[in-house]
Amino acid sequence: MNERTIADERGFTLPELLVAITILGIIIVAIGAMITTAFRTSSIVRAELSGSRAPKQVAFYWVPDVEGATDVEVGGGPHDCGENGRPVVTLAWTKFAVVTGGDAAAPPPEDAGTSASATWKVRQLGQRMQVVRDECLNGAVVASATVVPDLAIRSDSSVVKVGDDEYRFHAVVPDTSRPDKTFDFTVGAVQEHTP
């Protein structure tokens, strides 16, 4: 065999292989740490987004209910409707005919002039506490919506009257990423139709 053939068949030396394996191990550990951090961050962000949905959902119903109410009964009252749950507040109003498109001669809708109300209540569903809104016409439930699907354990929701015509709804929801933390929020609205 000549020298040229021996030189062409050489491979990596043992020190070169050890250096390459060490560098590869460092890179894999760094990539693993980044992936773990990314998953942890995404679960925290998902929990934060979940906690921020509750105030938006409450505001979607709370603001129009309070603005249109002619009677607000904090803690419930004679206009309570629906069953299953402890009333937090009942908001009552009267439905009126709405004229659209300039057709004043059109017949009023069937429910025009009837009494309507929405009772916000806390109820237990399995291990969870929820805030539910039951809407009634003449005392019969016509619609029901879960406004806060999950209240924090050992918390409650409440309504506070501020001034003459402002009402604030308060609730606490759990932080699903950190069991020892909660999201505390308040949504306010002003009653436009005072009695």
Give a written overview of the molecule:
It is a single chain. The protein contains 2 helices and 8 strands. The mean pLDDT is 80. It has one domain (39-190). The longest helix is centred in the N-terminal third of the chain and has 55 residues, at 14-68. The protein has helices at 3-8, 14-68; strands at residues 71-74, 86-94, 115-125, 128-137, 140-151, 158-162, 166-174, 182-190. The chain is α+β, with helices and mostly antiparallel strands and 195 residues long. The chain is rod-shaped. The strands form 2 sheets. The chain has a 5-stranded antiparallel β-sheet with strand order 1-2-3-4-5, covered by helices on one side. The chain has a 3-stranded antiparallel β-sheet with strand order 6-7-8, with helices on one face.
- Please compute the radius of gyration using only Cα atoms: 31 Å
- Sheet of most strands: 5 strands, antiparallel
Shape: rod-shaped
Structural class: alpha+beta
How is the secondary structure organized here?
Blueprint: H1 3-8, H2 14-68, E1 71-74, E2 86-94, E3 115-125, E4 128-137, E5 140-151, E6 158-162, E7 166-174, E8 182-190
Antiparallel strand pairs: 1-2, 2-3, 3-4, 4-5, 6-7, 7-8
Features:
195 residues; alpha+beta; five-stranded antiparallel beta sheet; three-stranded antiparallel beta sheet; rod-shaped
Provide a quick synopsis of the model:
With 195 residues, the chain is α+β, with helices and mostly antiparallel strands. 31% of the residues lie in helices and 35% in strands.
